[in-house]
Amino acid sequence: MEYRKIKDQDKDDERLQDDIESLHGKPLSGAPSNNMVVLGSSFSERSKWKVKSIVTLALTLLTSSQAILIVWSKRAGKYEYSVTTANFLVETLKCALSLAALARTWRNEGVTDDNRLSTTLDEVIVYPIPAALYLVKNLLQYYIFAYVDAPGYQILKNLNIISTGILYHIILKKKLGEIQWAAFILLCAGCTTAQLNPSSDHVLQTPVPGWIMAIVMALLSGFAGVYTEAIIKKRPSRNINVQNFWLYIFGMIFNAIAIVVQDFSAVAKKGFFHGYSLVTVCMILNHALSGIAVSMVMKYADNIVKVYSTSVAMLLTAVVSVFLFGYHLSLAFFLGSTVVSVSVYLHSIGKLQKK
Amino acid sequence: MEYRKIKDQDKDDERLQDDIESLHGKPLSGAPSNNMVVLGSSFSERSKWKVKSIVTLALTLLTSSQAILIVWSKRAGKYEYSVTTANFLVETLKCALSLAALARTWRNEGVTDDNRLSTTLDEVIVYPIPAALYLVKNLLQYYIFAYVDAPGYQILKNLNIISTGILYHIILKKKLGEIQWAAFILLCAGCTTAQLNPSSDHVLQTPVPGWIMAIVMALLSGFAGVYTEAIIKKRPSRNINVQNFWLYIFGMIFNAIAIVVQDFSAVAKKGFFHGYSLVTVCMILNHALSGIAVSMVMKYADNIVKVYSTSVAMLLTAVVSVFLFGYHLSLAFFLGSTVVSVSVYLHSIGKLQKK
User: Which Pfam families does its entry note (chains A, B) (predicted)?
Assistant: First the structure.
């Protein structure tokens, strides 16, 4: 439970993106440089592909190590710390890292329209939309557990894959070929298969309200992701670190409110850092870095790549857990991994055929 | 156990095909007619497609009702009859049906080189090859149960799908496109997923000799199927009923030997028809008809179509069993069915793209 909470809250805030709509249409400014800031305007196709690969790989590795840290922390005992304070620290760390990267850019290139921190109300006004969607989704999360248990919820969460694909198509108006659609359905089926365990069949007994909530949650989550991509892509030349900075500032505010509303008495009594351990620190660091990686993937790739990346990460985690924790892989895992692998292959074939 | 025996023996004999190599190269004889005999020479592409669809549909429906009859007979109690005598009767019935169809052809068209029953030693000599492969496979079947249980064996049997694809490519030199290969791997993964149950993981503990035997058996079975197609396709104008007649005559001989070797004392003591019931008669009828359908699919379509057809039949059976026997479908079944459906779709896309 706590894990999902920290994870969803985290993703939540990553989608609080900077609105740069008001700057849209402005000519690209600043001389070409090697900095990522002007990526997409001066870099060649090959370099773009390189950056896309690096951020995707980073997201995959960070997401898979995230899950491993969770297993590690579970082995170490129950979560003793306050999840809301940890989430707040994750946002603060992301904010600090974005500022550090920006400072470096300013030193190298000077301040330009694309990398200046200042923003306008026009820009900021669409920020809360993805955040609001996530808030509703997180509220629904508490109610859905009246209908499904936690492992069942994990299974239903794979509906996110399908909803992301559909909303990506509708909102961003980007066409997926028929093979890519087939690949996407396979990705969803493969991930679910890989997570099957002897008690998974319970999920089929989910009552209708549970199904409706699961579908609504998948749509909210998919919509938030795709909407964030839409906002972030509206001006490709805008420095990603500025976009991230505003995103994470909002994340800090939302999480500060969460501390007050949910955990105030406990934090006041036991202290902010009560129960923090080495694992907690590693998890905060990991969440911060993978949050930044998600933003980068949104900027330089898209939601489809993000979904593939996190799905493959899930499989990687399981394989690594065999060596680290002596886990046994199930036949369902092998079958699901095969289907996911074929899906990745078909996705790339479909991409080539569309060109 | 008994079920697999009757089923494998059945398939076995269908592959004992008539060798018509000696007639190869002869010009097509006989005036065009509406009879299936000259299909492929006078029929249009559309009619060919129609016949292909009909035989494929017939195979799918017969195979799925086959499994339903088996459930029915299991519910009715244990098999009381001798499986070898039932197999012998299946071959006899197929032989009789082929002769009846031939008699009708002779009446309508007269006797031609393509539909005459007489054959030469040159033709007959390659018959025993698929049969020999199946004999080895059936012998191995008894040994493999030292390493895996019956449900595990059902799971491993899905390796047949992959072996058929590989050998189809190697022996018949027909190319499958990259999407069709992907679809074939998905078919194997999807069928296996649909069959998963809480105890399926045992199969992963299969010791190395068990795996080797499973792979060898899959190769033998795939080779027998593909080799039969090669023989039967060598002369497209040869009447399928003649090819079937010789096939089933050999089937009768092999099964007569099996009665003597395996069941002689029991049959001599209790009688040939001991333990036969209405279900037994239905099963024999069904096996005979689906045996003929397999031959037809080999003649007018190919092994790939056969594999898809029997895989879809497996899913159909499960769905029908819900209504007939109140079975519950597992989540694994839904996921596997989704993967198989996407596989069928991709196979057809791949086919169109190759044209």
Answer: Nuc_sug_transp (PF04142)
CA B206 from centroid of its chain's CA atoms: 27
Q: Do B335 and A192 touch (CB under 8 A)?
A: yes
In contact, A243 and A159? CB cutoff 8 Å: no
Residue keyed to tokens 């009789």 = B96
State pLDDT tens for residues A242-290: 888 887 888 788 788 878 887 888 888 888 888 888 888 998 999 899 9
What size, in residues, is chain A? 355
- What residues have CB less than 8 Å from B111, skipping those under 6 apart? none
Q: Which residues of A touch B181 (CB under 8 A)?
A: none
Encode pLDDT of B19-66 as tens digits: 323 333 333 333 334 444 444 445 578 888 899 999 999 999 998 888
B352 touching A (Cβ < 8 Å): no
Report the 10 Å Cβ neighbour count for A142. 10
Q: Is residue B340 part of a domain?
A: yes
Is B31 inside any structural domain? no
Least CA distance to B331: which residue of chain A? A201
How far, in Å, CA of B65 to CA of B283, rounded? 9
Nearest to A338 among B185, B330, B331 (CB): B185
**What integer is the mean pLDDT of A136-153?**
79
**Is residue A30 a part of any domain in this protein?**
no
Within B147-207, residue ranges assigned H as helices are 150-156, 159-171, 178-194
Q: Is the CB of residue B19 less than 8 Å from the CB of residue B238?
A: no
Give the pLDDT of residue A134: 72
Residues of B with Cβ-Cβ distance to A339 under 8 angstroms: 186, 189-190, 193, 339
Integer-rounded Cα Rg, in Å, for chain A is 20
Residue among B198, B332, B345 whose CB faces A182 most closely: B345
Phi-psi category of A341—alpha, beta or left, where left has phi over 0 and alpha has psi -120 to 50?
Answer: alpha
Nearest CA in chain A to B196: A332
In chain B, residues with a C-beta closer than 8 Å to the C-beta of A330 are 201, 204
How many whole angstroms separate alpha carbon B25 and alpha carbon B235?
Answer: 8
Question: Would you call A330 an interface residue with chain B, using a CB distance cutoff of 8 Å?
Answer: yes
Exposure b/e, B76-94, CB count within 10 A at least 16 = b = eeebebbbbbbbbbbbbbb
Q: State whether residue A352 sits within 8 Å of chain B by CB.
A: no
The whole-angstrom distance between residue A127's C-alpha and the CA centroid of its chain comes to: 16
**Domain extent for B166:** 2-23+36-354
The per-residue pLDDT for A17 is 33
How far apart CA B170 and CA B183 sit, in angstroms, is 18
- If one counts the domains in chain B, the total is 1
Token pair recorded at residue B55: 């035989």
Q: How far is B221 from chain A (nearest CA, A)?
A: 22
Closest residue in B to A353 (Cα) is B353
- pLDDT tens digit sequence for B126-161: 777 776 777 677 667 768 888 888 788 888 989 999
**Quick check: B346 and A189 CB within 8 A?**
no
